[in-house]
Amino acid sequence: MATIELLHVADCPNSEKALVRLRRAVENTMPSSTPIKSTLIDSAATAARLPFAGSPTILVDGVDLFPTDGRTSDLACRIYLTPHGLAGSPTQQQIEAALAPHG
């Protein structure tokens, strides 16, 4: 079973939206018992220890579901390219498509 984790910073306005979309996507593509761990990135040191690319970052088995070269230790929000332009979180459809190989 895959391990799914959402990395986020406290003041990121996109984290909750991403978590809602991630939960729905997991329900639609993964076994029903797949847990989602939510991890607060509260310091640059914590961000540096993890594959954090800005908030929110979605990991599956410790790997960024939307890989970039943009790892950061800054407590900053992340931007995603979506079919509708740049956004603060991926669409549910993007998350489902990225999760499908793991389900």
Explain this structure to me?
There is one protein chain. The chain is an alpha+beta fold and 103 residues long. 28% of the residues lie in helices and 21% in strands. Strands 2-1-3-4 form a four-stranded mixed β-sheet, covered by helices on one side. It has a two-stranded antiparallel ribbon with strand order 5-6. A hairpin with a 2-residue loop joins strand 3 and strand 4 (63-64). Helix 1 (15-29) crosses helix 3.
Q: Can you give me a brief rundown of this structure?
A:
By secondary structure, this protein is an alpha+beta fold. Helix content is 28%, strand content 21%.
Shape estimate? globular
Regions with little confidence, pLDDT below 50 for 5+ residues: none
| Mean pLDDT across every amino acid position | 93
- Main sheet, how many strands, which sense, barrel? 4 strands, mixed
- Sequence of secondary-structure elements: EHEHEEEEH
Total helical elements: 3
Percentage of residues in helical conformation? 25-40%
Please identify the structural class as seen in this structure. Answer: alpha+beta
- Number of DSSP strand runs: 6
Q: How big a fraction of the residues is strand?
A: 15-25%
What multimeric state do the chains show?
Answer: single chain
